[in-house]
Structure formats: C-alpha cells, structure tokens
Amino acid sequence: MASSQLLQRHKSLASPARSPQAHAALLRPVVSRHAPFTAATWNNAPATRISDRLWGRRAELSRLVLVRAEQLDDGRTPGHPYPWEEDFDLLSDKVKEVTDELTKDLRGCNIWLIGMMGSGKSTVGKMLSNTLKYAFFDTDSVIELAHDKKPVSQIFAEEGQEYFRNCESQIIKELSPYRNLVIATGGGAVLRPENWGYMHLGIVCWLNGDVDLLARRVVRDGLEKRPLLAAASAADGGGAEGGGALGVARDKLAALQEQRRRYYENADVVVTLEGYGKDAEAGAPTAAVMYRLLSAINEKVQAKKREQAQRMNFTIEGAEQLKNMRTMESPAAAAAAAAAAQGEGEGPAPTA
Q1: In the structure, what pLDDT confidence band is assigned to residue 168 with cuts at 50, 70 and 90?
Q2: Contacts of 200 (CB under 8 A, 6+ apart)
Q3: CB-based burial label for 91 (10 Å; 0-12, 13-18, 19+)
Q4: pLDDT, tens digit, 9 for 90 and up, residues 176-215
Q5: What is the largest CA-CA distance in the chain?
Q6: What's the predicted TM-score (pTM) here?
Q7: Which of these, 284, 131, 196, 125, lies nearest to 140 by C-alpha position?
Q8: Which end of the chain has fewer CB atoms < 10 Å from its terminal CB, N or C?
Q9: Closest CA relative to residue 172, chosen from 201, 205, 131
Q10: Per the record, which residues fall in region Disordered (predicted)?
Q11: Which residue has the higher pLDDT, 312 or 242?
C-alpha cells in the first residue's frame, strides 16, 4: 500500500476535535489528590469522653484521625530545578498555557522529531499530536504497514538497510507537503541530505538523551527489535566485555551517536531527556519532555516572529521631504526636445 494512501486513511480516521481543557486533562493521572492520613493512639481527651456518653460501646470502634500535612512526604524532590515535572496538575496547566500561545503562531507547521533509538520519539510524538490537535505519523510504522505489517527488523534482514532508507526517504517526501503533522523519524533519517530538505519545511526537533539512558531503554524493550543493535549483539556474542546486552547496546549507541551528532545538531530545537530527582535514572517523564518540547518550539516561533517584526521596523531618511518633492524633467530629455523643435522650425531648404 502506498504511503499516500495510508495518509488518506489516517486522516479519515482522525479523532474528533477536543477542547484545550480536554487535552490538558489528558496529562492528569487518575489518582486521588487528598492528603494521606495517619491514625493516632487513643487518649482520654474531653472529646473522647463526650463520644463515650453519646455513643456508648460504639466508641470503642472509633479512632481519632489526624492529618499532619506539614509532616507528609508528597514524593517531590527537594530542590528540583523544575518542580512542575513532579506535579502533573501544575504541569498540565503550564502545558495549556504554552499551547494556547503557540497555536496562534504555529499555523499548522509540521513538527519533525529526530534522535537516537530509545529517545522516545514515538511516545512523545503521540502526546504532542494530541495536545496540538495534529495528526501523528511514525515513519517506521508506515513502512511496516506498507510491507504487510512486517517488523522493521525483518525488513532489514530481507531487504537490507539501503532499501529501508529508500523507503524512509519516500515517506518523508510524501508527508512533507501536508500540514498539521507530527512525524517521528528513524534514527538514521538524518544521514541523507534530501531528507533535511523536506524536514526543514517544518520545525526539526532533536530529542537528545545520554547514551546510558538510551541503552537502558532499548535493552528493556529488547535488542531484537533494533536491527543495528541485534546485528552488533550477534557479532559480539553478547559479551561486550562482560556487560552483556547493556554493554553491547551502550557501545553501539555511543558509536552511532558520535557518527550522527553533527547531523542532529542541524535541528531547529534541541530538547534534553535528562531527568532529575527520582527520574534521574529513567529520564524525564514523557509529559515533562513534551512540555520542554512545546516551550522550545514556542521560543523558536516567537523569536522568528520578533525577527520578522524587526525587519519591518525601518525608516526612510528624509521621508519628511517626500511630500514637497516635485518631478524634475531630465536635462537630456529637455535638450532632445529643444533640438527637435528647432529642426521643425527651420523646415526644408528652399530650391533655386
């Protein structure tokens, strides 16, 4: 099936529009926001004696519940540089705020996500598309659908990497003319200059993660799903100097990132995946990465808007004299007209 047909199918199955409040609500976890409570020991306070008189033997089943909010541990990290990343209610409000400002100036511009495998391009891209009311495409998934849902690893094995990259470039080419899209690309899509020509029609965003973080993620998902890592693991025998699968993934990802870094640096926006506090090992939560991405895109768009406004803010020196200026006749044209008039006045020479 051609990728353009897949695009039409995707558009026909688009979900109904949601309000900005509904999109912000997607970030709120379904948990109770009430403060936890602790049960205090029984005492002989006056309130207890009153309870005895009123309820008799039922008072033996009651307990005094005290809420000491100042002593509660809410799970947040003290000194967190971005405290809203651990408070989803606050984070959702900030997402709505930046989204309301961004959508006025984004004007349907496509957003392309690039980065290494394990950087979460697909996961972040889906959440971003829901928030912006955009359609989402993953180039790997489109290629799989076009090949009867064969996994990427099988396409690599049967057709080779060059064939896969050609398919990827074709998908990028066909998606680029459309608007209101979030597109997650493969990690190696940045290696071809023609892909950049299409992606730079929109905003290119690099999800930049540390090699150790990326290695932990891809090992958790399984190396067999990553053709380049699976080949490296088979060649190494799973050893990697005693590090096992994690060592193989770390070594291969470090080499790939070093090779691709100069291409990734051509992105319009760079967003770090670094986590803080309790998220230091797993990386920043998806919603937090999306907010960082929205903020970075908004800063880029607003900077471009200010630049365009600055270009239009110019003055013409001596403009106050324009309304007093008259059209001056060209001296050369005046001389030519005088010569022509003199020639007409003399007329033809008389004959004898």
Answers
A1: very high
A2: 268
A3: buried
A4: 999 999 999 999 999 999 999 999 999 999 999 999 999 9
A5: 155
A6: 0.68
A7: 125
A8: C
A9: 201
A10: 1-20, 328-352
A11: 312
Residue 351 neighbours by CB distance under 10 Å: 4
Alpha helices per DSSP H over the chain? 3-12, 20-25, 46-55, 88-106, 121-132, 139-146, 152-159, 161-175, 193-199, 211-221, 227-236, 244-264, 286-312, 331-346
What is the residue extent of each domain of the chain? 106-310
SS3 152: helix
Angle between helix 121-132 and 286-312 (nearest 10): 60
Q: From CA 22, how far away is CA 323, in angstroms rounded?
A: 57
DSSP state of 32: -
Residue whose pair of structure tokens reads 């995946």 in the numeric block: 273
